Amino acid sequence: MEKRDILTTRLLLAGFALLAAAVLALCMDYNASLPEKVLRPLSPGEQEEIMARNSPLTSYVRLSPNADFPRGEPVRKVTVHHMAADLGLEELGEAFGNRDRQASSNYAIDSRGRVALYVEERDRAWTSSSKENDDQAVTIEVANDRMGGDWHVSDEAYAALVELCTDICRRNSIPELTYTGDAGGTLTTHRMFRPETECPGPYLAGRMEELAREVNRRLAEEG
User: Fold this and answer.
1) What are the phi and psi torsion angles at 29 (to 5°)?
2) Cβ neighbours of 90 (radius 10 Å)
3) Among 174, 62, 159, which residue's Cα sits nearest to residue 118?
4) Are 110 and 85 in contact (CB under 8 A)?
5) pLDDT tens across 127-142, in order?
6) Are 80 and 200 in contact (CB under 8 A)?
7) Cα(20)–Cα(120) distance, rounded to whole angstroms?
8) What CA–CA distance (Å, rounded) separates 92 from 97?
9) Do 64 and 118 meet the contact criterion of CB atoms below 8 Å apart?
10) Of 10, 71, 98, 196, which is the most buried if we count CB atoms within 10 A?
11) Does pLDDT of 169 surpass 70?
C-alpha cells in the first residue's frame, strides 16, 4: 500500500473514532438528563411513591424515556388512543422503553382493565402527533380485544377508562370533560391531530360523548 493510501486510511479511521466519541458523548448526555427513575427497574417503594403522585388506579409502572420532563403546560385535557393490538401492559412498556420508537403515553389500559403508567402526569408523553395537545393532555392507550373493523375494546377496558378519566379530572381540577368533535374540547382523540390514522378506532370514537357524560355525572356526584 502506498504512503498516500496509508495516510488516507488513518485519517478515515481517526474521523470514525471522533464521530463515535461524539455519538457516545451525546448518548451519555441524554441519559444524564433523564430523571433517575426512568429506564431502570423500580423497587416496590419507588413504584408506590410514583403511584402516590399519579393515579391510584395504577397497577404497573415502567417509566419511558420518550417524554419531555416536565410538560410545558398544566393538565387541562384527556386524549384517548387505541393500541391497534391486544398488548399486555408489560409488552407495551417494553415498546415504550425503546428510544428509537419515539413514542409513549401517560397511561395504558389492557383488556382486563388493568392500568399502567409509562409517563408521569407532570411530564409530556409523545402520543398524539401534537406537541400542543400533549403538553396539556394526559394520554391513554386502550387495548383492543378485536383487531380491525371497529377496533372493539373489552367492557373491562372501557369501564377502567371511565374510572381513569374521572380520576384524572378530579386530581387535576378539570371541572368537566367536553367532547366537541374537534381539538377544542377537553376530551380529544388522536385522529383530531393526525387525520390519516384510525386511532382510537370507530368503537371508542363512537363512545366519546358517552364517556364525557359518564365522567361528568360522576364528578358532579362527588361534588
Assistant:
1) -65, -40
2) 11
3) 62
4) no
5) 999 999 999 999 999 9
6) yes
7) 33
8) 8
9) yes
10) 71
11) yes
Tell me, what amino acid is at 133? N
Separation between Cα atoms, residue 134 and residue 67, nearest integer Å: 10
Q: Rounded to the nearest 5 degrees, what angle is found at the Cα of 106, between the Cα atoms of 124 and 176?
A: 90
- DSSP conformation class of 20: H
Question: CA nearest 124: which of 109, 141, 139?
Answer: 139
CA distances from 50 to 71, 139, 141, 171, 178 (A): 16, 17, 19, 15, 28
Other beta carbons within 10 angstroms of residue 201's beta carbon come to: 26
Beta pairing partners, 137: 77
Tens of pLDDT, residues 80-101: 999 999 999 999 999 999 999 9
Residue-wise DSSP of 41-80:
---HHHHHHHHHTS-TTEEEE---SSEESS-SS---EEEE
Q: Which amino acid is it at 5? A: D
Name the pTM for this structure: 0.86
Q: Which residues contact 6 (CB under 8 A, 6 or more apart)?
A: none
